From TrEMBL:
This is DNA repair protein RecO. One of its GO terms (biological process) is double-strand break repair. HAMAP family: RecO. Belongs to the RecO family. GO terms for cellular component: bacterial nucleoid. Involved in DNA repair and RecF pathway recombination. Keywords: DNA damage, DNA recombination, DNA repair. It comes from the Bacteria. Pfam families: RecO_C, RecO_N. Residues 1-79 form the DNA replication/recombination mediator RecO N-terminal domain.
Length: 245
């Protein structure tokens, strides 16, 4: 059957001479793989339309969908949102690629989740529009708040009596954990502050330096690895940390 849906591009692989296979997180069907023919064809008028399938691109799609097939087809596609900065600004693009890889590793099932889709779509649009301070903290915000859709979000009960953030249990605790997966002191407090952020512009109020972001991003990667099977390490993380400077 033919359906209209919005989609966010996660991964593109060349296929044959002119085609691609693209993984898209769709509003209607969750993560799906599509064969798109002819988009890498060049002409005198310019390159093909493969540039529309860059990671993080938001598209309006008309698709053929069959639940029995692993590879679907796209009938029509156009921009669903045109970014002003995200594809061209080195820092914003590095944050976006980190977000995309995080989604690649966690969106395991082809199931619709409109609330999650709208959170992701809204996050990329806010990143595109963000100032430098918000952009610098955006990866932390996204990594923390994405977990609430997967059911293992940190419980935000930080206090002087519960100063340790147990990454294995996902909660602030009173005593030093017996395992090595935890944050303490200022890093626990900052995580609590980030959990309270409801809108990205509020990230401007959280002052962090390069070392703080490095420690927190490494810790949040560990948190995901402890709760998502076969998560591994994020290839985009070292690049992001270098770019954030």
């Amino acid at each position: 059957m033919i359906h209209s849906t919005k989609g966010i591009v996660l991964r593109t692989v060349k296929y044959g001479e002119t085609s691609i296979i693209v993984t898209i997180y769709t509003e209607l069907f969750g993560a799906q793989s599509y064969l798109v023919n002819g988009v890498r064809t060049s002409s005198k008028k310019g390159p093909g339309k493969a540039n529309m399938f860059q990671p993080a691109a938001i598209l309006d799609l008309v698709v053929y969908h069959n639940d029995l097939k692993n590879l679907q087809r796209i009938k029509e596609f156009k921009w669903g949102h045109i970014y002003q900065h995200l594809f061209f600004n080195v820092v914003k693009n590095s944050v976006a690629l980190f977000m995309v890889e995080l989604l690649q590793k966690t969106l395991k099932q082809p199931e619709a989740n409109p609330d999650l889709f709208h959170f992701i779509e809204d996050a990329f649009i806010h990143l595109d529009e963000a100032d430098d301070q918000v952009t610098a903290n955006f990866s932390l915000f996204f990594a923390l708040h994405l977990t609430s859709f997967y059911g293992f979000r940190f419980s935000d009960d930080y206090s002087e009596e519960h100063p340790y953030l147990d990454l294995q249990e996902g909660e602030f605790v009173h005593e030093h954990p017996i395992h090595p997966y935890f944050l303490q002191g200022h890093y626990s407090f900052i995580t609590s502050q980030l959990l309270k952020v409801m809108q990205p512009h509020e990230l401007k109020e959280i002052q962090l330096n390069k070392e703080m972001r490095r420690v927190l991003l490494q810790a949040y990667q560990t948190f995901y690895a402890l709760h998502v099977p076969d998560f591994g390490a994020l290839k985009t993380l070292p690049v992001l940390q270098e770019v954030l400077g």
